[in-house]
Amino acid sequence: MAQQVNWAANKPAREDVLLELEADTASYFGMLQNSEDFSHRAVASAIRAQKGERAASYEARAAVRNALSGRIREARLHLHGASARGAAKGVDLQYGTALALAFACDSAQAQALIDELAKRRPDDSIVQFNYLPTIRAQLALDRNDPSEAIEALQAAVSYEFGSPGNTGFWSCLYPAYVRGEAYLAIHKGSAAAAEFQKIIDHRGIVLNQPIGVLAHLQLGRAYAMSGDALKAKEAYQDFLMLWKDADPDIPILKQAKSEYAKLQ
Length: 264
Fold this sequence. Notes:
By secondary structure, the chain is mainly α. It has one domain (2-263): Tetratricopeptide repeat domain (Serine Threonine Protein Phosphatase 5, Tetratricopeptide repeat), CATH 1.25.40.10. 73% of the residues lie in helices and 0% in strands. The chain has 15 helices and no strands. Helix 4 (52-68) runs parallel beside helix 6, helix 9 (146-152) runs antiparallel to helix 10 (174-185) and helix 14 packs antiparallel against helix 15 (251-263). The longest helix has 18 residues, at 125-142. The chain is globular.
């Protein structure tokens, strides 16, 4: 990876892509401070290459990473950075921004973005069967309505394993992740475990997306809820091993260690 990043150095419209991939990978292993550094460098590189929307998408990706880890303040700073690059015009950027807003519990702005997106792209399969159901479901969770979230995600079931291609933003299996969280919220541990296992079983789709590693933690929570302490411990151990070099002050890591200690 370092070799490829060195190759891309100072190459316009190449360097930023590799730096953002490094940001994703650092985040995957819980090294969020390193991830932040790579992300800032990716944004700066994209701006130098006059790729403003790409720079905004990197800010949105960083916002999602931070929000999922419980770093809401940092997520909102990145969302402000994305907004400063101009209005979200591209479909994938609009989705990414709405996803970050929903994970950060900024429901009003997220709702406004997806309402506009629904009007703009009524015949877009990715929008209608992946992006919109995922955001609507997360917004339902923000309202403490997990049943509505599960219902909203029915539209995504036949499509969530598909990849829209090189869009510059994630979409693969986010419906499954949010569905798993919804099942946890209604205390259906076995159903939740099945959703998070989908993500773990399809690493070639998920790659270095943040849900790829967080699925291990969520699987542990699902097994603990189901009363399977042995499998719960194994899932927590898998997560903690992946995050053995993680920044110690990440909120979700602190929660995971506390939960794991109670299983002992």
